[in-house]
Amino acid sequence: MELHPIKFQPLYKYRLWGGNKLKTVLNKDYNEEHIGESWEVSDVKGDETKVINGALKGYTLRDLIKEFKGDFVGHSVYEKFGNEFPLLIKYIDAKTPLSVQVHPSDAIAKERHNSFGKNEMWYIMQADADAEIIVGFDKELDADEYKKRIKENTILEVMHHEKTNKGDTFYIPTGRVHAIGAGVLLAEIQQTSDVTYRMYDYDRVDASTGEKRELHNDLAVDVIDYKVCDSYHTDYETSKNVSNKLVHSPYFKTNFLPIEGSVSKDYSNLDSFVIYMCVDGDGVQVLVDNETYTLNYGETIIIPATVNTVELSSANAKVLEVSL
192 and 260 in one domain? Predict the structure, then answer.
C-alpha cells in the first residue's frame, strides 16, 4: 500500500465542562452529552485514532508509523521519536470553565509518568461575549504563598485573566498555569501526553461520579513557573495565501495560513509530516498527486513527509499548518 493524505476518525471525550459546539459549530457526529474534546490525531495509548479514508482505512496512527517509518513522519522525526507520534491534535469546547492546571516538563513527566511533557498552544476559533482564559500570573509568588492561597481558595486572585476573541493565540509552555474559560471553542496542538496536574476546580462535583475531581497540588508545586510575563498573548501576521509564523517551539511549529483562491506549498526541504486544521471559513480542497481531498471547517488532515507539493484552494478559509 502507498501513503496518501490521512484523515482520522476523531475520538470524542466526555468532560464535566463540555458543551455541544463540537456538534453544532464544527459538525462533529456523536450523540453523547458534555463532549468537551475531539481528539483528531492521537497516539495516546488506548486512544489511538484510526484512518477513515483511502487504502489505509482502519490503520491506527501507530500502525502507519511502524509500516512507513520516516516516509510518513519524516526521517529526522522517526530517528528522534521512533514509533511514537509526538503530537496530539484536538478541538476543545468549554461550556463551563476548565480546571486551573499545569503540565510538567519532559524530564519530570518522564521520571514520574514515563511520558512526554505537555507544551501546547491554543488558537481561539469562537468565543462567547465576555469569554476569557486564564494564563500565567499577574503577581509573582513563591511556593509557600501558592500553598497558602490554594488552602484559602484565593489562587484565582493572582492569576492573569484575559478576555479572548476569535483568532487569539496563546502558547502554554510546561510550568505555565492555565485554564480555558466558559464559552470558548479552540484548536489545541500539544505534545503527545495526557498528564495534567489539576490545581483548582471550583469545588465542582462531577455528575457522572457524584464526587469532586482529584487535585494534584503536591505534584504541581515544584512544576509551576511562578514568574510574571509582560504578555501571554501571541501576536502574528495575517497575510493572505502566506504561511505566517504563529508558534514555533522546540516541540512543534505552527503557521497561520489564510487562503483566498489557490496556494501552492513546496515541502521538498521539510523532513516532517504536515498537519492542516481548518479553523475558519468554507473549507479547503487539498490537491496531492492529482487526487483531491476535502478539508471542511473543523476537520484535520495529515500530509505524509514524502509529499513534496500540495495545492490548497478555497474561496475563504483559515488553516493552521503544523509540522516538526
Answer: no
